[in-house]
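Lab channel / #folding
Pinned by the channel admin:
"Please post every new chain as: sequence first, then the structure tokens as a reply. Keep commentary short and put observations after the output so the thread stays searchable."

First post following the new format, from NK:
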Amino acid sequence: MEISTSKLNEFQNVLSGNPPTTSPDDAIQQLRIRRSNDDPSTTPPDDTTKQFIIMISRFTVWHVALLDLFDNPPEWFKRRRKPLPTIFTFTSSLSQVMCEAYPELKQKDAFYNQVWKELNDNRLIDTPGFQTMMTSNGWKFSRTTELGKNFLKFIKEYVI
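Reply from TO:
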């Protein structure tokens, strides 16, 4: 399996707490990736690995950034030393949390709704609607599926 080095680096950069960039890939280089931990009990099945590599080739850094944010929103804010959103009195919404985390996405509803739809279509998240209203604490719960968690782990643990 081959993967874009620059794209994987960009995804890993986002998962390290750096803001996503919107610059296009500057390289078309492909090279083999290898697992940093070769323990077969922790290695995803070949079909899952192939699926993840296909997702990496199709997704933007925003896919990974939003998936990471909604895997554990309170922990995401803590890792980045950002204050937890306090704008919620009785209700909350995922789009409000996203705008608190990434203000540059405000007024880009069509874009982030499409990213969210693609995450849902690939079964990486379990909440189909990004505009879903919930209790004031509802935003704090993980929205990633087991597959989504494994995809994030895959990106974090693979080295070039």
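NK: DSSP finds seven helices and six strands in the chain.
TO: also worth noting, Residues 22-37 have pLDDT under 50 and may be disordered.
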